[in-house]
Specification:
By secondary structure, the protein is of the alpha/beta class. The chain is built from ten helices and seven strands. Strands 3-2-1-4-5-7-6 form a seven-stranded mixed beta sheet, sandwiched between helices. The radius of gyration is 18 Å and the shape is globular. The termini are far apart.
């Protein structure tokens, strides 16, 4: 468990995970489900998931669609946990987890039918976004799809970026829908489908839908009994409410040219 003394300066996703939140995507499960519908996975196809964490989504994809999944994750402890989870579910031949850097996707020799990344690009600088997207394009088979789920900036970009950077402790730089599309295109990925919606990550009703009643109650207890968690999450929520009309989510499907 992350120590409370570290949570004052920890990135927002670490704070939310310490509170017990498992769904950290800006549009929640509903947006991810739409993204998966666009993918139209077929059994035996291959998927690369960026920043695969503890492996939960990679394992779920393999179970649900019969795809072959490779997850790349920087933290070796998380890789070990994910590998153990794959073995415990009998999917070690279908799901593989490797330690690696999402900025160095050229180190992966294989190519894939899909690359999946959720809540990753927003946290990168413009050069960082371009570097990752170029690596994604090069890892996709011709005609392959990049499935992305990110934060959307609707207006007042400068003040929004500053507020998010202060509260998330990372350089969060969401883009407008047209800027996301342009950024994809500059990396050689043609956006064929996209959808935007309201950012409700810390809305109580959304938390209940995403996490279920048991996890929601556990989160509530953790927040009530750990002051550092409570202070950080309340700060995040205030910023999200203040910028509710400027901030949303976007999901995109980008295709590498055949």
């Amino acid at each position: 468990m992350t120590q409370d003394s570290d949570l004052t300066t920890a990135p927002s996703h670490v704070v939310l995970a310490a509170a017990g939140k498992t769904v950290l995507r800006p549009g929640g499960r509903v947006a991810t489900e739409q993204l998966l519908q666009w993918a139209n996975f077929q059994p035996g196809e291959t998927v690369l998931e960026l920043a695969s964490g503890l492996g939960n989504s990679a394992i779920a994809l393999a179970k649900r669609y019969g795809v072959q999944v490779v997850g790349i994750e920087k933290d070796p402890d998380r890789v070990a946990i994910a590998q153990a989870s794959a073995r415990s579910t009998g999917l070690e031949q279908q799901v593989q987890f490797i330690q690696g850097n999402i900025f160095q996707l050229e180190a992966i020799a294989a190519s894939f039918d899909y690359v999946l990344a959720e809540a990753i690009l927003t946290m990168q600088s413009p050069p960082g976004k371009a570097k990752i997207l170029t690596g994604v394009r090069d890892r996709l088979n011709p005609g392959g799809k990049f499935l992305s789920h990110e934060l959307l900036a609707r207006d007042h970009l400068d003040s929004l970026h500053q507020a998010l950077a202060e509260v998330t402790r990372v350089n969060a730089t969401p883009l407008s829908d047209q800027d996301w599309i342009t950024t994809f295109q500059q990396a050689g990925l043609t956006v064929t489908q996209y959808q935007t919606g309201t950012m409700t990550l810390l809305d109580p009703a959304q938390i209940l839908r995403d996490e279920g009643i048991i996890h929601t109650l556990q989160m509530g207890w953790n927040i009530l009994t750990r002051p550092v968690l409570r202070d950080r999450i309340l700060q995040m929520r205030r910023v999200l409410v203040q910028h509710q009309y400027d901030l949303g989510y976007i999901i995109l499907c980008g295709v590498r040219a055949a």
